[in-house]
Amino acid sequence: MTIRTESVSLEDARRVVAAGEVKADEIGSPSNIAVVDVGGNLVAHIRMDAAWIGSVDISISEAFTSRAFDISTADLAANAGPGEQFFGINVSNNGRVGARSPACQSYSAHSLNPSAQAD
Predict the structure, then answer these.
(1) Distance between CA 87 and CA 91 in Å, rounded?
(2) Could you give the residue ranges of the DSSP H alpha helices within the chain?
(3) Could you give phi then psi for residue 32, rounded to 5 degrees?
(4) Which pLDDT tens digit goes with each residue over 56-66?
């Protein structure tokens, strides 16, 4: 049996990055923006002027996490505290999983509505 999946093209990734830049400008928060493909592999990344260098790895890890679990990292984080179903998930996948506060959301291109702007 052959399973066919669609992934994100570089052109699509550039659109996601552009939408992320617009949102970051709107909220006054220079950001690192990462887009991964269906396999969780990096397709595009930018670090806006004045964005923290230390957040480069975080943005890439959060994009991977969003794709790996098909969920926004804010939703994952809401269920990753002590006593919650995903507690300790941050140490899975060789520490590559990122689950942060609702204020720092990441999405995979797979989980975004193609006609919607990035949140």
Answers:
(1) 10
(2) 10-27, 55-69, 73-78
(3) -95, 135
(4) 999 999 999 99
Give the whole-angstrom CA distance, residue 48 versus residue 24: 9
Place of tokens 């996601």: 16
> What are 6-33's pLDDT values in tens digits?
889 999 999 999 999 999 999 999 999 9
Q: How far is it, in rounded angstroms, from Cα 34 to Cα 32?
A: 7
The answer on pLDDT for 112 being more than 60 is no
User: What is the reported pTM?
Assistant: 0.76
What is the number of residues in the chain?
119
Both structure tokens of 2? 């052959």
Check if the beta carbon of residue 72 is closer than 8 Å to that of residue 112: no
Q: How far, in Å, CA of 62 to CA of 68, rounded?
A: 10
